[in-house]
Amino acid sequence: MLDSTYEIGLGNNDLKTRSDAARDGIKFWETQAAKLYWFEKWHTALEWNPPFARWFVGGKINASYNALDVTVKKNPNKKAIIWEGEDGTKRELTYQELLSEVCKLANVLKSLGVKKGDRVTVYLPMVPELIMSLLACARIGAIHTVIFSGFSAKSIKDRVEDSKSKVIITSDGGKRRGNIIQLKDIVDEAISDLDFVEHILVLEHTKNNIAMTKRDKKWHELVASMSPICNAEVLDSTHPLYILYTSGTTGKPKGVLHGTGGYLTHIYSTFKWIFDIRDSDVYFCTADMGWVTGHSYIAYGPLMHGATQIMYEGALDYPTPAKIWEIVSRYKVTILYTTPTALRMFMKFGDELPNSNDLSSLKLLGTVGEPINPQVWKWYFKIIGKEKCPIVDTWWQTETGGALISPVPGLETIPLKPGSATRPVPGVSLSVVDEHGKEVKPDSKGYLVVTNPWPGMLLTLWGDDEKYKTVYWTKYKNVYYPGDYAIKDKDGYIWMLGRADDVLKVAGHRLGTAELESAFVSHKAVAEAAVCGIPHEVKGEAIISFVVLKEGITTTMQLKEELTNHIRKTIGPIAAPDQLYFVKKLPKTRSGKIMRRLLKAMAKNEPIGDISTLEDEASVDEIKAALAELQQTLDKF
Ligand code: ATP
Ligand code: MG
């Protein structure tokens, strides 16, 4: 798996944090929590009634106070958000300005009858008002629930019905690749028979005509008469901060509920350790606010540290495929945090685009969302980071709140191994176990589990404690089961191999999807690949693979054979795919994750289930056509 290691750091060498964490995990997290602003200190660090963890019980805190007021008191004119619209419009907001806007909006929400504990759905494009909406809810103790602005009316309806939101915040429209998405119309359709929604608050953004009823209120009209002061509600540490539905890669999205004090402690600490944030940094996370990455490492993490960050409204390759590199160069971005799927797209465009932009401001690179293929890691390291930036591969989930596995260059320099997220962050204990929960030997494959509660841990699934227990706590007793397949190597490094449900069982061998897909991606002609297994009488499972080639490469029988041989050579004859299809697109979630369950269902001729989070239905048709071809071949036997 490993052909090279990279020892590169930021010159930090704080061994104490890790040793403190190892000595007494709970005391360690208390020391971290003390770095936040508390109205009142907690009396109990952790109440652990498995599987329910409650952190810093008795403590009183407010997320928006920590994200805004703390910096405003020290440095009110520090730039918080530098925003660029898809059409090139620019806006900047200081911490003081952001605080005033958040307070006005919080007062608007109060005037609309929103009270502590009420849910507010936020369905906005990537504009600063999206961050304001989260913080305004947090300020008054309302629970925000953000829905990605690309989702359909049906997806909104399901989520609003589940969360019973009283108010929905949206805008007249959202811009996407030169088009306007009619967000307000979509919301109207979604809630046409949901009586409990009392108001829709509409931000003017694209200025296109929209229908307004008595129920609907214009953001700028209400905000205009509001005071820019709104005291932050003094909330229990365990008060719910938000509900966020998971990406839906493996099934119907789950409504993950996060608390306040523990969650903020986790985010504050990991943001500092992983990104080594400094006052002069310009941070750019390319995630959408509709994903947990946006919540933790755009909204709360950077703001709690008084960081300056870039927010871009559009797609990273629009209006030009070099857009992301132009942003890095224009704003002298120092920290870039993106996804393997975006990196594979940039790689596909070639080296010329990043090479012709000045990327010399970068000091640290990050990735999240899927296992990063070693080949892609090396490209990121060499072409983007010019071999001087550490890469932080951060493994985590909506449920974990913040990163659990990642290099922590803010604390220590350790050798990086391309494709491994390295080790758990301080204060987190993990293990890789077999079916019976027994730790496997180093270098063997197994299921990742988290053996201790951690502060960013979800409170439960919204309104469904039973499902919470079943999904995460039933496979093993009293350890958290994330549902991912992994290896812990001899050095204690974790290698994520893909979803446990997607593991292929071929002739007695277990293969993680990431192993196979990375083997494909290591071939120079391949941009992306996805694999799945279907039942096979002799071998147990047959491997079906879908391959996207790099720009300008033509599909030939010869290339098919070459790729099959490449897999034979890199993993072994056992892994040679039974079927290999060239496709133009893979089915992905809107957050860019490959939806292998769809491939598998289609390959097995089963219903494809919930696809509300699918990015592009055209990819499904293409895969269906490829599979129909397979079916015809099989029918001949
Ligand atoms: P659902 O639970 O609804 O199927 P999802 O799991 O895709 O959706 P997220 O919480 O957004 O929703 O994704 C978390 C998952 O993403 C992890 O369980 C893991 O499989 C994958 N993942 C995230 N970061 C990494 C990483 N750095 N390396 C490997 N896998 C990662
Ligand atoms: Mg998940």
Report on the structure:
Helix content is 32%, strand content 22%. It has 637 residues and is an alpha/beta fold. The protein folds into 2 domains: 6-427, Rossmann fold; 507-634, GMP Synthetase, Chain A, domain 3. The strands form 10 sheets. The protein has a 7-stranded mixed β-sheet with strand order 6-5-18-17-19-20-21, with helices on both faces. A hairpin with a 5-residue loop joins strand 5 (79-84) and strand 6 (90-94). Helix 3 packs across helix 5 (128-140), helix 4 crosses helix 5 (128-140) and helix 18 runs parallel beside helix 19. The protein is globular, with a radius of gyration of 24 Å. The mean pLDDT is 95. It binds adenosine-5'-triphosphate (ATP) and magnesium ion. Adenosine-5'-triphosphate (ATP) binds next to strand 21 and strand 27.
Short description:
The protein is α/β, with parallel strands linked by helices. Helices cover 32% and strands 22% of the residues.
